[in-house]
Specification:
By secondary structure, this protein is α+β, with helices and mostly antiparallel strands. It is built from twelve helices and nine strands. Strands 1, 2, 3, 4, 5, 6 and 7 form a seven-stranded mixed beta sheet that branches. The chain has a two-stranded antiparallel sheet with strand order 8-9. A hairpin with a 2-residue loop joins strand 8 and strand 9. Helix 3 runs antiparallel to helix 4 and helix 3 runs antiparallel to helix 8. It starts with a helix and ends with a helix.
């Protein structure tokens, strides 16, 4: 059976029946993740020869969208396996890939991607974590915040400054075994959305990390292809939330009556649903283009990927809110589907780069390109 057909069966038989419970309890859905591994959802970026195959990125988009429509926490867990194994297979030595990749693909272990700190989110240069060389090792000190899977991760990809905490210090990415002495993982505050994804802090107190556990990248910019992959996933989650809002709203409009006729006969409702459908199609098209750019190699088109993440997250938040409005009092019930979609949509505006930072980066690039006499057509996607 083709993978996407297996995915649809998985969503219908496994994920959808568990989605409300995952949100209600906020417990990590290990059963769902293990079942996903059985049909190879975590393995989608791995070719038949066991090596990375970025050309399969459009499948990543489809998987994340279809999962997030029901449970964004489950979609993020699968995407986390894509991200961590991608970075390991591309940049880590064989000792690390042999240890961590296969257990991650089967859902037995989880990796954390630790960049953010309590006082350094978008401002990556503001981080205070430091890795100092000590012979053949690094000594890692610092604390990372809002780390997905911090309480249950088996390993973490940690970005730290090398040698000193000075703002312009070079950065190093280390793969850290969370069972190492000096590593402490703790749960963080509960989110209103994305319930079922564990998050928290990872603290490092002079943790000894072998120098060979360093990824072969130069700092934050060197991992931009991994960040691009994460942003394609984020755009795909938003597409799934948008689709869920559209499905729920049309069903509500068809079955609910008001003033003696179907709710969907009211022009105000038709207008909301019409805009919702239009933005969903636009979001899917832009995200598909972003995924195609990644599939073409070289880490993807950063501008298009940023646009996709920005547009889809803003549209998802706008239209899940509209879906709540269409559902009236029922939409305010926490256990309702549209309420869950609305809470999840807010998360997409914040993680993997806030909407504001994407707007700023894109605007700055367009202005500087024009000021330098460059061709804005390339930025806008015109074929050269």
């Amino acid at each position: 059976m083709p993978l996407l057909d297996q995915l649809d069966t998985f969503v219908t038989d496994v994920l959808a029946p568990r989605a409300a419970e995952i949100d209600e309890t906020a417990e990590f859905p290990q059963d769902v993740i293990s079942a996903a591994a059985q049909i190879g959802l975590q393995r989608v970026l791995i070719g038949d020869d066991g090596t990375l195959d970025p050309s399969r990125a459009p499948l990543v988009h489809e998987i994340s969208e279809r999962l997030a429509m029901h449970s964004m926490a489950s979609a993020v867990a699968i995407a986390n396996a894509h991200l961590t194994t991608y970075l390991l297979l591309k940049y880590a030595p064989a000792e690390l890939t042999e240890r961590w990749v296969e257990p991650t693909l089967t859902g037995e272990t989880f990796g954390a991607f630790a960049i953010t700190e309590a006082h350094a989110g978008t401002d990556v240069r503001g981080m205070a974590s430091v890795a100092r060389r000590d012979g053949d090792d690094y000594l890692l000190t610092g604390e990372k915040a809002w780390v997905g899977y911090a309480p249950n991760a088996s390993f973490a990809i940690v970005l730290a400054k090398e040698g000193t905490a000075e703002r312009d210090a070079p950065m190093v990415a280390l793969v850290v075994d969370t069972a190492s002495p000096g590593v402490t993982g703790a749960p963080g505050p509960a989110f209103s959305g994305l319930r079922g994804m564990s998050n928290g802090t990872l603290s490092f107190d002079d943790v000894r990390v072998p120098a060979w556990s360093r990824l072969s990248v130069e700092g934050f910019g060197g991992m931009m292809d991994g960040l691009n992959l994460a942003r394609i996933d984020a755009a795909s989650y938003a597409c799934g939330l948008l689709r869920g809002a559209l499905v729920a709203s049309t069903e509500r409009a068809a079955r609910r009556t008001a003033f003696g006729r179907p709710l969907g006969d009211l022009q105000a409702i038709q207008a909301k649903i019409g805009r919702m459908a239009t933005d969903y199609q636009a979001a899917r098209a832009l995200t598909a283009r972003a995924a195609a750019s990644f599939a073409a190699g070289d880490g993807g088109d950063q501008d298009v990927i940023s646009m996709a993440k920005l547009f889809t997250s803003e549209a998802a938040r706008r239209h899940t809110d509209a879906a709540v409005q269409i559902h009236g009092a029922e939409g305010m019930v926490r256990s309702s589907w549209v309420n869950r979609l609305d809470r999840d949509a807010k998360v997409t505006q914040i993680f993997d780069g806030t909407s504001e930072i994407h707007e700023t980066m894109l605007g700055r690039r367009a202005v500087r390109l024009t000021a330098a006499g460059g061709d804005l057509g390339a930025f806008l996607g015109r074929e050269q």
